[in-house]
Amino acid sequence: MTADELKAIIAAGLACEHLEVEGDGRHWSAVIVSSEFEGKRPIQRHQRVYATLGARIQSDEVHALSMKTLTPAEWSAS
């Protein structure tokens, strides 16, 4: 899997105002900005992203994903 493919999968399942994905094919890091994160704790935000990946996480196609999940307000303040 490429970074562009992973980015497309996340974007298809989650409305993102900003999305960056980097990695080596199995280990990934992402910065994800979405209004869907409003009012959610960090664990809930991560669960929402994992839900977009579904079987790819369970099958180990995506072995590890480090995430920075932000609301649009948090992103603009950083």
TrEMBL record:
The protein's name: BolA family transcriptional regulator
Transmembrane feature ranges: none
A matching Pfam family: BolA
Similarity section: Belongs to the BolA/IbaG family.
